[in-house]
Amino acid sequence: MKAAAGVITGSGALLSEAAHSFADTITELLLLTALRRSRRPADRLHPFGYGKERYFWSLLAAVSIFASGAMFSFYEGVTTLTSEPKEQSRPLIGYLVLAAAFVLETVSWLQAMRQVRHESAEQNRSIVEYLRLVDDPAPKSVFLEDSAALIGLVLAFAGLFLHHLTGSAVWDGTASILIGLLLALVAYSLGLTNLRLLIGRQADPVVVAGIRQLLAAAPEAEAVVDLQTMLLGTDQILVCARVDFDDALGAADLERTCVRLAAELHEEFPDVAEVFIEPVPRTDPDLRAAVLARYGDLASRYIHPGSGS
């Protein structure tokens, strides 16, 4: 509808919105692929599963938004501003199409907003904080895309209306460029989120603190020397802990303790998928240097001899 209206009216902003819708369609297909492929069970070649594949396909979705949406909008806007002025025709068709698109996008946005609000409330977080820390890029992608779609429709309407009102195509070209900037911003935000997840972002800081507290509270533990977590996928956390245990423990007691702590972590934090606990002395100089290099002075209270945990 947008493409046809853009051709009929000669509006670059409407054509930019058509490219925007095309990019959104490709994005949804990529997100659907991400959801399906990331659910495959672990196998010998991928012992931690395929959870991170969701981040890969979601990253491609962000690239799609930029390549097919933002770049075309920039091109259309610059072309409109630099070429011979085009006479606008039958703008009413453009208004009707934009109004219909706004209604449809609002329905989609309300559904995305409802999901984001529900999940952020479950985590006791604001919407902004939830979107920043979310480990599933799909809700964030849909929410940002729908928000950008509504803003883009308003920009396209403004460009079409001002062109109609003044007879100057500058407004139409400017609207196209603004739509391109909007899409580029969304693509950058989603790309950065998926990049961090692909590299191996740590788990939710609240969960990390809870894991550390559970391990430190064990009667056999003298100190939690080092704790590393990584997201293996949506709702899948890898936990690697180095713990200084009571030296009086025998080998069998130490084994049973590690098994018990792993089970407690699984029970307390359902997202914990894999747990590795390594008994270490907190006085080891190489280990101390490695932890301090990673966390700085913040780590000193956990690994300093006699400090507890």
TrEMBL record:
<dbReference type="Pfam" id="PF01545">
    <property type="entry name" value="Cation_efflux"/>
</dbReference>
<dbReference type="InterPro" id="IPR036837">
    <property type="entry name" value="Cation_efflux_CTD_sf"/>
</dbReference>
<dbReference type="GO" id="GO:0008324">
    <property type="term" value="F:monoatomic cation transmembrane transporter activity"/>
</dbReference>
<keyword id="KW-0812">Transmembrane</keyword>
<feature type="transmembrane region" description="Helical">
    <location>
        <begin position="177"/>
        <end position="199"/>
    </location>
</feature>
<dbReference type="Pfam" id="PF16916">
    <property type="entry name" value="ZT_dimer"/>
</dbReference>
<keyword id="KW-0813">Transport</keyword>
<feature type="domain" description="Cation efflux protein cytoplasmic">
    <location>
        <begin position="205"/>
        <end position="277"/>
    </location>
</feature>
<keyword id="KW-0472">Membrane</keyword>
<protein>
    <submittedName>
        <fullName>Cation diffusion facilitator family transporter</fullName>
    </submittedName>
</protein>
<dbReference type="InterPro" id="IPR027470">
    <property type="entry name" value="Cation_efflux_CTD"/>
</dbReference>
<dbReference type="InterPro" id="IPR027469">
    <property type="entry name" value="Cation_efflux_TMD_sf"/>
</dbReference>
<feature type="transmembrane region" description="Helical">
    <location>
        <begin position="55"/>
        <end position="72"/>
    </location>
</feature>
<dbReference type="GO" id="GO:0016020">
    <property type="term" value="C:membrane"/>
</dbReference>
<keyword id="KW-1133">Transmembrane helix</keyword>
<dbReference type="InterPro" id="IPR040177">
    <property type="entry name" value="SLC30A9"/>
</dbReference>
<feature type="domain" description="Cation efflux protein transmembrane">
    <location>
        <begin position="1"/>
        <end position="199"/>
    </location>
</feature>
<dbReference type="GO" id="GO:0006829">
    <property type="term" value="P:zinc ion transport"/>
</dbReference>
<feature type="transmembrane region" description="Helical">
    <location>
        <begin position="147"/>
        <end position="165"/>
    </location>
</feature>
<dbReference type="InterPro" id="IPR058533">
    <property type="entry name" value="Cation_efflux_TM"/>
</dbReference>
<dbReference type="InterPro" id="IPR002524">
    <property type="entry name" value="Cation_efflux"/>
</dbReference>
<feature type="transmembrane region" description="Helical">
    <location>
        <begin position="92"/>
        <end position="110"/>
    </location>
</feature>
